[in-house]
Specification:
single chain; about 190 residues; TorD-like; globular
Length: about 190
């Protein structure tokens, strides 16, 4: 998928969630990016946000041995990966912990947020920060954060995730992330 087709992918998914649901969706996406373990299916079923595609994806995951799901996660996200969920990997020629990670580490510290032990430019961490910003500061601050943090690489990541994933779960996650990005970066287009 090219950069321009990934851009179209994001812009073709109109958001419909109320602002109050946005926080739960950011948390859901962060959790969905985590490495799966024996409790992951139950945790996904218990999430307050349940996108329409999730039931079918959970059926698919339930029919697979856990090591197959874990293998897909590793193939997609563990460096060197087909679609590493790190800004630096897309912005700085495949490196990890680059300039974006350093800038985000400082930004998180200024907010009083503790490091998770993962690189600051990890998409799951960015999603958690987005939920925090929306809850604490509202959509305008979140919009600036998304513009500064996601707009220059997320399209390519979503295109890679959509084209490379062999599981409906991760293709659905790409759609959720696209909807969030669209809602955050182009709120004037919402109806």
């Amino acid at each position: 998928m090219t950069e321009s087709s990934a851009q179209v992918f994001i812009m073709s998914l109109p958001p419909t969630e109320a602002a109050s649901d946005t926080i739960a969706i950011w948390h859901f996406c962060a959790m969905a990016l985590a490495e799966p373990d024996g409790e992951s299916l139950d945790l996904l079923r218990e999430q307050p946000y349940q996108p329409l595609w999730l039931a079918t994806a959970l059926q698919e995951l339930s029919s697979l041995p856990l090591d197959v799901w874990q293998g897909e996660h590793t193939r997609l996200f563990t460096f060197p990966a087909l679609c590493p969920p790190f800004a630096s990997a897309y912005l700085e020629e495949g490196t990890l912990n680059g300039h974006r990670a350093a800038a985000l580490e400082t930004f998180y510290a200024d907010l009083g947020l503790l490091s998770t032990g993962l690189p600051a430019d990890y998409l799951g961490t960015i999603c958690e920060c987005a939920a925090f910003l929306h809850e604490e500061n509202g959509p305008e601050v979140l919009r600036g954060f998304c513009q500064d943090t996601l707009s220059d690489w997320l399209d390519r990541f979503l295109g890679d995730l959509t084209s490379q994933s062999e599981l409906l779960f991760y293709r659905g996650l790409a759609q959720e992330l696209a909807r969030l990005a669209y809602a955050c970066l182009a709120p004037e287009r919402q109806t």
